[in-house]
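Dear colleagues,

I hope this message finds you well. In preparation for our joint manuscript, I am sending the DNA-binding transcriptional regulator, MarR family (Allokutzneria albata) sequence together with its predicted structure, so that both groups work from identical material. I would be grateful if you could confirm receipt.
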Amino acid sequence: MTDEPFDDPRLTVVGLLIEVHAGLIAELTAVHAEHGLAGSDFDALLRLARSPGRSLRMSDLATQTGLSTSGVTRIVDRLERRGLVRRDFCATDRRSCWAVLTDAGHDALRGELPALLAVIQRRVVDPLSPAELDGLAQGLRALRDAVRPGAATTTEGEGADHAEP
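The corresponding structure tokens are as follows:
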């Protein structure tokens, strides 16, 4: 008797994705910790760095990071206390608040980048051919868009632009 339902290639693909994710997160978490950041801190800072004016509406930052508005508020609070981010209120809509990357936040990202890129190079880039890497990036974008719509772009208005991590 075979367990054919358990040999489903869909299970294999998702299992591999989970294994790769777990391994990468473990190594990236260590790099973030060496630089005094959590992974969620780095994600928020990077998204701000890659956005026009190094700023995003708090609601857009929440959407892009996949966090609740209260979750992103806690991250921004923590980063603001460290001087890595500041809040700017919208002059035309007092309900709207922007998270803005400070020069200190930019420097913190720049300081971590070499170690982070070394891990990415060793664990993601080196094992793949350029064509495989390009295909992986395309496939991951399609999957990301399917499971987290809105994660790649901001909503309407100022600062609307592509800001992938």
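For the figure legend, we might mention the following. Strands lie at 55-57, 85-89, 97-101. The domain at 21-147 is CATH 1.10.10.10 (Arc Repressor Mutant, subunit A).

With kind regards,
E.M.
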